[in-house]
Amino acid sequence: MAKKKIESDDFIQPLGDIDKIIHEPARLMIMSYLYVVESADFIFLRNQTGLTDGNLSSHLSKLESAGYVDIEKRFKGKKPQTLLKLSREGREAFELYRKKMEQVLGGLSQK
Amino acid sequence: MKENIDLKTIEEKILKTGHQHGLFDLLIGFIVAGMAFGPIFRESLPEPYRYFLWPLILVIIAQILAFIIIKYVIQPRTGIVKPGPSLKSTRKKLLIFTSIHFVFLLIIFILPFTGIASGIKVTGIVFILIIGLFFMPFFITIAYLLKYPRAYVIGILIWMAIIINELMYDPIDYRIRWLLSYGVIGLIIFFMGLVIFVRFLKKYPLPKEELA
């Protein structure tokens, strides 16, 4: 019984230190999109994720504060353009998050 | 917002953004329909370039139109994305295949002029099948690699244009024959693209201003 408890803790344990910034569904979506591309602009990400301007903007600010996303603001002609890309830390954090989630979900048996 | 997050699905979705607007269908339709007017202009073109020049003019016009429409109509609506390593490798595969295919087609095209294949005469249904085999791999590869199923339909439609043209070889004057085969099929592809393009414009209106 005690052994079973320890085994259960082994795979549940990583949930405790899962990255809460990435774990939020909207931010996970943003991170996933930015992970597969080199960079994207605000409009592209908004169209793909289906988030509203305000929502996307606020999640991006959180990801930028965490150092996961680099935001570059520039002008294309007279129009503002916001370019987004995952930072090296962001890429590493996302890969770690994936590994941990696979570990946890892989440990859950189907009954 | 969708609940399931799968990186492969996201990559496919990003690939599809490259042709979801229907512009390429529209421009392929334009080129095919434009080919129908080839025989009319052919006579006024200089001799050695008679057969190449008209398709070349159409392709150049289509390229210019694609550049302008993508830059001023599509990109402001869809935004800009630079592909990651996996998407870049898909594009590289496509480029390699289309280059090999182009060289193959060029050799086939040049062979009759060199006299090497002068003994080989292919006519009728065999000709139709061989012509299809020459360019169908191109559309099949595009459809498969870029997740662009309409490319299968476009390929088959162009093949049909060649078949119709071949079937009407004797009874009808060649100018009308080209209009009935390439003209009609080209217009079908063009309108297919136009419907998708109009839907795209409605779905993605011009954004007012960025917030971020």
Folded structure, characterized:
The complex is a heterodimer of chains A (111) and B (212). With 111 residues, chain A is an alpha+beta fold. Chain A has one domain: Arc Repressor Mutant, subunit A (Orthogonal Bundle), CATH 1.10.10.10. Chain A is 65% helix and 19% strand. Chain A has six helices and three strands; from the N terminus they run αααβααββα. Chain A has a three-stranded antiparallel beta sheet with strand order 1-3-2. In chain A, β2 and β3 form a beta hairpin. In chain A, α1 runs antiparallel to α6. The mean pLDDT of chain A is 85. Chain B contains eight helices and one strand. Chain B is an all-alpha fold and 212 residues long. Chain B has one domain. At the A-B interface, α3, β1, α4, α5 and β3 of A face α1, α4 and β1 of B.
List the topology elements.
The complex is a heterodimer of chains A (111) and B (212).
Chain A: H1 2-16, H2 20-23, H3 25-36, E1 37-41, H4 42-49, H5 53-65, E2 69-76, E3 79-86, H6 88-107
Antiparallel strand pairs in A: 1-3, 2-3
Chain B: H1 7-17, H2 23-35, H3 38-42, H4 50-78, E1 81-83, H5 85-114, H6 124-145, H7 150-167, H8 174-203
Keywords:
heterodimer, A: 111 residues, alpha+beta, 3-stranded antiparallel β-sheet, 3 strands, 65% helix, elongated, B: 212 residues, mainly alpha, globular
* DSSP helical segment count of chain B: 8
Tell me, rounded to a whole number, the average pLDDT of chain A.
Answer: 85
Gyration radius of chain A (Cα, Å) is: 17 Å
Number of helix segments of chain A? 6
Measured by DSSP, the beta-strand proportion of chain A falls in: 15-25%
End-to-end span of chain B in angstroms? 19 Å
Relative helix content of chain B: over 70%
Q: Give the name of the CATH architecture of chain A.
A: Orthogonal Bundle
Q: Which blocks of ≥5 consecutive residues of chain B have pLDDT under 50?
A: none
Helix fraction bin of chain A: 55-70%
Q: Biggest sheet of chain B: strands, sense, closure?
A: none
Q: What is the string of SSEs of chain B from the N terminus onward?
A: HHHHEHHHH
Query: What class, by secondary structure content of chain A?
Result: alpha+beta
